[in-house]
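Hello forum,

I keep getting stuck at the same step: I have a sequence, I want structure tokens, and every attempt I make locally crashes halfway through. Rather than fight my setup again tonight, could one of you with a working pipeline run this one for me? It's a single chain of 423 residues.
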Amino acid sequence: MAQNDLRARLVHTSSWMSVFQDNLDVAVSDALGQLSQSDFKRAFNSYHLDELIDSAIDLIDRIVVYRRDAIELDGLAIKYAAEHKLFLDTFDLDAEIQQKALGWEQASFQRSANESAVNEFRSAADPLGLGLACQSDGSAKAADITHRNETERSRLMREKADLVKAYRLELHRRHTLPGQALNFAERYTRVLNLLLEDVRYLYVQSLSLSRGVKAIYGIDWQVPAISPSNYIDTLLGWFRALSREVDLHRDREVQETLIATALQGSPLHGVPYMTAAEFGAAMASNGSGEVSFDLANDLPGQGHVRTLAVGIAFIFEMSDPSTRDNRRVFRATADVEAPKQRIVGQVGQSPSPIRVRIGGVGSLYQDKMITEEGVSIRNLDPRGIWKVRVQPWLIGPEIKPFPRRPPVLADIVLSIRIAKVSP
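Reply #2:
Ran it on my machine without issues. Output:
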């Protein structure tokens, strides 16, 4: 309350003080409370957990700096505004005190007294009176000099006070000039806007992080409710605890690679994902070019599993037996579509599939595996149906001479590198 009273008093002499917030925490709480539904609809992909954590760390660094700058600017503004008000309140008093300290009035009185004494002593007949008249005359002249000096000093002091007042008023005016270092209100407004923008950004990211760790690790870590009391510190503490929890889960993870071949199945069950006839029809010129790998049963009872990377290999077969041993290499490209992912906190699955295009080379034998690991694949739940769509116009020979007849794509190998925490 006392701080608010001080600000109210300072506004009368420094109008720019009205820009400063009485409570920075309340400003943060109000800004978060004004988030609209459109802000939440632009929520981040919860499965981009690593990128969200890195981005949140950068945001936190900036928020801490902005908050420190805002607090320092608030303190400087109060200091300068209070000093200016003190100057205005005491200026006339100081001038009067300085005038009172001068001795020109005393010198004037002493001069008049000495002049009267001179006249009296000179009218006396005895020699002592003449001596005292001379002494009084000297004292009167000295008092006259003192009076003139004090009068001049009084004028100079008033002139100096006027110059100081003009200087202080001009300095105070610079608090309102755009772009000036002393324009604390402008600097504070800029820093406060950046602070509130990053806090809103961090809050929306935190909601996505909360959904992400729930989907990937099963960690139920709810974002703290918005509060007008130290919410920035509360949110920073929540994020640090969340990061430690994610690190603990990853320390318990083990990695392995799951290999699945369209016509041979996976090593876990050995059942083909499609027959040779189905594969040939799909890879024909008028076919779909699509192969589905249902991995739902390949990872039973594995607890929380996340994808680290996906890779494919193309196995070609030469249609011309005479060139079968040449091991010619051919290039192929395919789109790999991940299983639909459940969005935590919403009903159903992701509305749009997650795809990644992988280009690689293949030969008569499975000797090259092209692996893709990136933000679009990492952390996805691998259990479900993976679809590989071969792009027929992106298949061609890698080296010359070309074979007499084009090669036939004989099989596709899908490789999924996963990390899992067993229950």
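DSSP finds nine helices and nine strands in the chain. If your local run keeps crashing, start a new thread with the error log.
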